[in-house]
Automatic annotation (TrEMBL):
<comment type="similarity">
    <text>Belongs to the UDP-N-acetylglucosamine 2-epimerase family.</text>
</comment>
<keyword id="KW-0413">Isomerase</keyword>
<protein>
    <submittedName>
        <fullName>Non-hydrolyzing UDP-N-acetylglucosamine 2-epimerase</fullName>
        <ecNumber>5.1.3.14</ecNumber>
    </submittedName>
</protein>
<dbReference type="InterPro" id="IPR029767">
    <property type="entry name" value="WecB-like"/>
</dbReference>
<feature type="domain" description="UDP-N-acetylglucosamine 2-epimerase">
    <location>
        <begin position="29"/>
        <end position="357"/>
    </location>
</feature>
<dbReference type="Pfam" id="PF02350">
    <property type="entry name" value="Epimerase_2"/>
</dbReference>
<dbReference type="GO" id="GO:0008761">
    <property type="term" value="F:UDP-N-acetylglucosamine 2-epimerase activity"/>
</dbReference>
<dbReference type="InterPro" id="IPR003331">
    <property type="entry name" value="UDP_GlcNAc_Epimerase_2_dom"/>
</dbReference>
Length: 364
């Protein structure tokens, strides 16, 4: 079996680490195409080196741009690669512009597409990711769903016959790295200046366009984080840094200490060292859940509803609508006492995905 993984953005590289490890030693041919959507070392290279992912076989080097330009550039650059390679599966990951471009290039060449992390829905059509994931699901041939909830969404949209529950590959990698961090196999993370990892602190990220691109909203969110009663390590995505600079919003204020995005092991270590997480990232909501830290998600909704149902994650659409002490109390609330269960699988999702692709190739 010949499979081409199409990746481009940071969260896809984490998932790729699990998939590449599952392919290793199987005898299948697994090629990696990096679209170049993320190109900063902090968002790309450190994941390859840190997670032991083989170097990409092809790098398309598309870089940043408007949604249309970025998606179109991936399509243009990818077409000849897929035409030349003729894989048995084109495997696309998650919901970025690289995902939809990879799926479109493949289906237009009649190449089978498998979508990893299929079936997630926020039902928020303002999110670019919601379009990417819905469109990708509807054009893919095999839908590898991470959760029962995702399976239900796919069934509701008439896609049940193409859907298989594989589990969430992020669990595979998160638990592996957690164990390595606990075993002392990684150096301590480089936290922002002023954060003492041995004293209580909170970990925060913000990068969604809905939170960063409106200056009034961004300024209010930064003020809310700055008002928290514990030091806050803000791991700043380039989009956040750029928008804050553009609108002269100081990121270093009050409780806030700003640093760069961390490599994956550093991020896992930072979550484990923290008292809790405040974020708008999908991946980090789940990582907090898996690492048993409370999470407060600054969004009106989440695709990862299981984290909320079990009490480990709370949604706060607009912190400024809460009195300051209620906001602080939410972010620093005690951990729930209920058993979180294993809604995202048991850490074998990537091997499941490889097996399902094998079965669907022969029987499918
Ligand atoms: C993308 C994904 C999002 C994912 C996120 C993870 C889409 C639509 N969005 O959002 O789902 O959660 O990745 O980080 O695909 N930039 C750099 N260096 C880089 C990459 C980007 O400075 O290496 C800056 C550029 O100014 C760029 C901006 O960040 O315009 C946004 O990058 P982009 O890849 O378009 O989207 P993300 O916000 O990273």
């Amino acid at each position: 079996m010949k499979v081409i993984s199409i990746v481009g953005a940071r969260p896809q590289l984490v998932k790729l680490a699990a998939v590449a490890a599952a392919f290793a030693g199987t005898g299948h041919e697994h090629l990696i195409v990096h679209t170049g959507q993320h190109y900063d070392a902090d968002l790309s290279d450190v994941f390859f080196s840190g997670l032991g992912i083989p170097d990409p076989d092809v790098h398309l080097g598309v870089g940043s741009g408007s949604h249309g330009a970025q998606t179109g550039s991936v399509l243009t650059a990818l077409d000849p690669v897929l035409e030349r390679e003729q894989p048995d599966w084109v495997l696309v990951y998650g919901d970025t512009n690289s995902t939809i471009a990879g799926a479109l290039s493949a289906v237009k060449q009649h190449l089978p597409v498998a979508h990893l992390e299929a079936g997630l829905r926020s039902f928020n059509r303002r999110m670019p990711e919601e379009h990417n994931r819905v469109l990708t699901d509807h054009c893919a041939d095999l839908l590898l769903a991470p959760t029962e909830e995702a399976m239900r969404h796919l069934a509701d949209e008439g896609l049940k016959d193409r859907a298989v529950l594989a589990g969430d590959v992020m669990v595979d990698i998160c638990l592996r790295i957690r164990d390595a961090v606990r075993a002392g196999e990684h150096p301590r993370p480089e936290l922002p200046e002023g954060i003492d990892p041995d004293q209580p602190f909170l970990l925060a990220t913000l990068h969604r366009p809905d939170n960063t691109d409106d200056p009034a909203r961004l300024a209010a969110l930064v003020r809310s984080l700055a008002s928290l009663p514990l030091p806050v390590a803000l791991l700043a995505h380039p989009r956040l840094v750029a928008r804050a600079a553009e609108h002269a919003i100081p990121l270093t204020q009050g409780s806030l200490h700003v640093g760069r995005p961390l490599p994956y092991a550093g991020l896992v270590a930072a979550v484990l060292a923290s008292q809790g997480v405040v974020t708008d990232s999908g991946g980090l909501q789940k990582e907090a859940f898996l690492l048993e830290r409370i999470c407060t998600t600054v969004r009106p909704e989440t695709e990862w509803v299981e984290t909320v149902r079990t009490g480990w994650n709370t949604l706060v659409a607009d912190p400024q609508l809460l009195p300051a002490d209620a906001w602080a109390a939410t972010v620093t609330r005690p951990v729930p006492t209920t058993d979180p269960g294993t809604p995202y699988g048991d850490g074998r999702a990537a091997r499941n995905a490889v097996r399902i692709m094998e079965e669907w190739m022969t029987n499918g």
